[in-house]
Known about the structure:
Blueprint: H1 11-15, H2 18-27, E1 30-33, E2 43-46, H3 49-57, E3 62-63, H4 84-95, H5 98-102, H6 105-119, E4 124-126, H7 127-132, H8 134-143, H9 151-168, H10 179-197, H11 206-215, H12 221-252, H13 254-262, H14 267-277, E5 283-288, E6 292-294, E7 297-299, E8 304-308, H15 309-312, H16 348-362, E9 369-371, E10 378-379, E11 388-390, E12 392-395
Parallel strand pairs: 2-8
Antiparallel strand pairs: 1-2, 3-5, 4-12, 5-8, 6-7, 9-12, 10-11
Helix pairs in contact: 4-11, 6-8, 6-16, 8-12, 9-10, 9-12, 10-12, 11-12, 12-13, 12-16
The chain binds protoporphyrin IX containing FE.
Amino acid sequence: MTTALIDLASPEYRLRPWDIYRQLRDEHPVYFMPEATWDGEDVYVLSRYEDVGIALKDKARFSSQIQQDNYMNLPMLVNRDAPEHTRLRHSTNRAFNARLVRQLGDWVQGLVDELISELYEHEQVEFVDAYSTALPLRVVGGMLGVPLDRKADLRRWSQAVMNSFAVSAGLDPDSVPGFFEDIVEFSNYMEELAHERRGKPNRGDILGGLVEEHEAGELTRDELVTMAWSFIAAGHETTMNLLGGGIEMLLREPELAAQLREDPSKTAAYIEEYLRLNSPTQWLLRRTITDVELHGVTIPAGGLVHVVLGSANRDPRQFENPDVLDLSRPNVNRHFAFGAGAHFCPGSALSRLLAEATFNSFYPVLDRFSLDPERPAQLRKQQGSYGFSEMWLNVHPERGR
Length: 401
Ligand code: HEM
């Protein structure tokens, strides 16, 4: 191995990783990157579908507790193993369950209609800010009892949490100044909200459920607060990548849009295929618990493993013609965009609901929007997150009706 195939920090790897993924899968199914993090840790990269599945599901060999010291080691679901993870996850599942999501349909549709009608007020609009960020933040913020007038703060806090993940994954903390102070501010705010709810009847939202879990002694105060803001962080950026990217693709590919407009029952398959091809979370981290041998390479116990969901989802060993969007794909639900195993995303049903409401509402009015050729959509440069950071649309209110 002479030249390094990937540089975790390079924009190329973040923006156009598909060829690199192919090379990794075919030539280096376990790719060793010595001293690859900002603090000099070795990284092992897993890119094939089968190996990514093993890393996500084999709890005896792969840990989610990736940090070795206590810096930013917050009690979050995503960075805990059993038995602590099992307890936290039970509380989450009770506070945020499928029944709750099923009841949200009309409320979500109302928010979608409101945001779309606000788009018509402009001749040009930046869609990521005006829609794809706004919808998940309003929905998840609303479910946590955060009033709409704090939406600017919510964005800042959510960004801070994402930055904290990136720092624990190896980003230099000096490159994201102020993130720690923002997290403390957010935590204090959530604590106040939770405090106000104590002893009051549950309104049937996530915060109510978490406060109940706290009062029953299932969650500590710190766990409740961290849980609340991990919903904001985990739910907003990922879903925003799906909504923005899904609309961009419909605007760029009129035949696909026409097909879906004619048969909206294919929307569910469109969502899964979009997620498979453009996984909003491109990679996750794990740490090996024991020595793990794969493809003749031994990853030593304690090794940091870069688990590339985005590559697994385009592995031809699992998906035929993996780079093609195929609405009739027989294994359309088998992608890893929401992870797998014990940490499988608890927000998957909610984000599918938001995407379905969004795409179905846009089909009939899609002709009123076009991508601005003067300002091509920009992909975000943040590590591990794939989606548009900026997408300007021209709005044509006279068309389409
Ligand atoms: C398109 C949208 C979404 C994508 C692609 C996505 C992706 C993921 C992935 C890959 C994981 C697994 C992490 C791991 O194994 O380390 C995960 C976990 C998680 N997601 Fe999502 N997510 C989305 C939406 C949401 C929403 C809307 C929420 C909440 C409102 C949410 C909350 C969470 C939480 C709390 C976890 C941690 C679960 C655990 O560790 O047990 N996500 N998500």
